[in-house]
Amino acid sequence: MQLTATMQDFILHWGEMGTKWGVNRSVAQIHALLHLSPKPMAADEICEALNLARSNVSNGLKELQAWKLVSISRDLGDRRDKFHSIRDMFDLAHVVIEGRRNREFAPTIAALEKVAAKAQDDATPPQVKARMAETLETMQMFDKWYMDVARLPRGVQMAALRLGGRIARFLPKSN
User: Fold this and answer.
1) I want to staple 7 with a disulfide (CB 3.0 to 4.6 A). Which of 3, 25, 31, 57 is the partner?
2) What is the per-residue pLDDT across 57-101, written as a single tens digit (0 to 9) for each?
3) What family is this (predicted)?
4) Which positions ≥6 away from 44 have C-beta within 8 Å?
5) Topology (CATH level 3) of domain 5-85
6) Burial call 79-116: b when 16+ CB within 10 Å, e when fewer
């Protein structure tokens, strides 16, 4: 696949953003290339397009598959695996958010639950216990909100996203 200057800019930016999201730059660039590609790509095509070593591409593809961001397909008569990214942006955002929730947010809530329970039986000052409880309660509230929204049909989620901040007119006014 021949990359245009604009495609290169997109891939480079996605790679830079990946480092800010805690993802290796080349892994994010592989994902960006597959996201832009109109058809699935073989690993050797990815290597050539991005000028990356085969081992780097192999490891990156494994990581992206583990995150469920990239899938494999095969063509009849071709022994090579072909890789493709999730095409639908809504589905892509959902997979990323759900993955981050499972890897980062949910384990933090579980750890805070243990710490808060332990704090009830030790010499932790009451103000610290209260702060821990408030932190846990707020995180649980956000998690419950997310889980409730994630269960809604896609059309309802899209309507809520489009409504955005205008939803405030339907909520009680605060002082």
Assistant:
1) 3
2) 999 999 999 999 999 999 888 889 999 999 999 999 999 999 999
3) Belongs to the GbsR family.
4) 54, 80
5) Arc Repressor Mutant, subunit A (1.10.10)
6) eeebbbbbeeeeeeeeeeeeeebeeeeeeeeeebeeeb
Q: Where are the domains of the chain?
A: 5-85, 89-170
Question: Which residues have C-beta within 8 Å of that of residue 124, sequence separation ≥ 6?
Answer: 132
Helices marked H in the chain — which ranges? Answer: 5-20, 25-36, 43-50, 54-66, 89-100, 106-119, 126-151, 154-163
Residue 168 has pLDDT above 90, yes or no: no
> How many other C-beta atoms are found inside a 10 Å radius of the C-beta of residue 34?
22
Contacts of residues 158-163 at CB distance under 8 Å and 24 or more positions apart, as own/partner, are 158/90
pTM: 0.82
